[in-house]
Give the backbone structure.
Amino acid sequence: MFLLSLPSLSATCMRYFRMFALHMQDIFEQRGRTFVWLLISCIAPLIMILFWRGAKGVNGWSFEEILSYYLLLIVFRAMLISHNEERVAVTDIQEGQLTAYLVKPFSYFWLVFFQELPYRLFQGGIGILFLVLCFQLLRITSSVELFMLSVVSIILSFFLGFIFKMIIGLCAFWMTDSRGLFEVVDVTLVIFTGLLMPLAFYPQWLESVSYFLPFAYMLYFPIVMVQGQLDYVEVFKALSMQLFWIGLLVLVYRLMWRSGIRKYTAVGQ
Amino acid sequence: MVIHVSHLERVYKIHQKEPGFAGSIKSFFSRKYTDARAVDDISFDIEKGELIGFIGPNGAGKTTTLKCLSGLLYPTSGTVDVLGHTPFDRKNEFLKQIGLVMGQKNQLWWDLPAIDSFLLNKEIYEIPDATYKKTLDELVSLLDVSEILTVQVRKLSLGQRMKCELIAALLHKPKVIFLDEPTIGLDVVMQQKLRDFIKAYNKQYEATILLTSHYMKDVEQLCERIIMIDHGKILYDGKLANIVKEYAAKKAISVIFTKPVSREKLTKLGEIVSLEETKAVLSVPRAKSNLVASRLLDSFPVEDITIEETNIEEIIRDVFAKSSKS
């Protein structure tokens, strides 16, 4: 799938772009969903800003840095955390819509990807507008190189988060009700992606645990990278952890897809 | 040969649970499975351009067979070959040549007009612009749906949606088409329109079409050849016209006489099904029905005579009834 000759590569890119553009319409058709998620992204961080107000030097972070962290968090969460798991699990696998995709000559993974991408770009776009408005409050790295590297990290985070949510969705092959799992996932994300507070504020052991898990690389690291709080060594360490997790999760996804499809088709939905 | 199926078998494992909470606990620890043989040693071949009807009662194995043919199910044993491919590999070259429409499932985008789903399929199937435009125009005029293409799919009626589903499934001009109950839930007029379309499409594009349906009308009007299955086995595979010869060896003649006639005289002509006063029904071998009718007219005071045309639906019901008894 990834090995393509050059002329067919450009044709393929155009084809993907047109598919993406078609799905862009979803956003406008489903304004409700789009704006609810935008609102949800805002609420918790705003309250956390109130909570930390007046704090001076927490774990070496100034209040300005904390404020900037939460503002960036609002935008990065809207941009990077995908919400495709429910659709994969409920509509496609449990209700059997997947059947229609299985007879199509196109990978299911990428089809869902092109449906999810517009939401993330749109919400991210609005978020970046919002960031421009409160530019004064942001602490962003002054190094062009580090900034470029954080852009790379942002893109990798999006992939990582998307693949993770696809895997959660595929669990529906083996579960009749995935709502419980979704709850667990949400709580896990709140704790380990830095949604609650910067992971650096955690006790040492919890911080180390969270750096070991994939979740920190879906949201936390891009933020602190943009804020210029990591040196080159830490940046490269984070980037390689992202690549490592993407590789591992792709492998897990493939294995789950292969055996899940066997199970799904075995019952003949 | 487009489709070759030999000794196809498909067994489902069905999980059994005893009733109630105790049953749940028990099945949590040890699950009991029984085998259900949905398709049991089926073989048939289909040539290019054939329009074949799969008929059989609920749970006969029609849909299972279609799913094995379209790659949605892997067979328990036996071989399936469609257009030179093994369907369950689900290779892109194979999937690009088939189309599947299931009356009870939809593939159209719910919140957008059908035309957007068509555009997405254009990309998925990599249909060139010119071909896309031409095929779409043809299908739209065949189905007469030009006005509803830009209406949100959720606002369409069931019949309109079915037409759009068909277009979505046919845009890439599949060589083999599987239609699973395409007319389910539609009114009589719409059913007829879809039938006309399927027939026209089959002629125009020389596509091989396999169709399952509960409605005998669908099959009677569309298919020359039918495959009847029940309990996973083929009961009959052949021309629809021949089934009448094979299964309805006799014809019924009802006569109304001007005055009562004697039973003995009548018995010589055929088996008497009923005789009361001036009304009689005779059962005679198919081939002799005309002869018997003319003898009746010659030697009896006949007021009215009808040779009952054999009703295919009845014959088929008979065949299935016999198969479920045996």
Remarks:
- The mean pLDDT of chain A is 87.
- The first helix of chain A runs from residue 6 to 29.
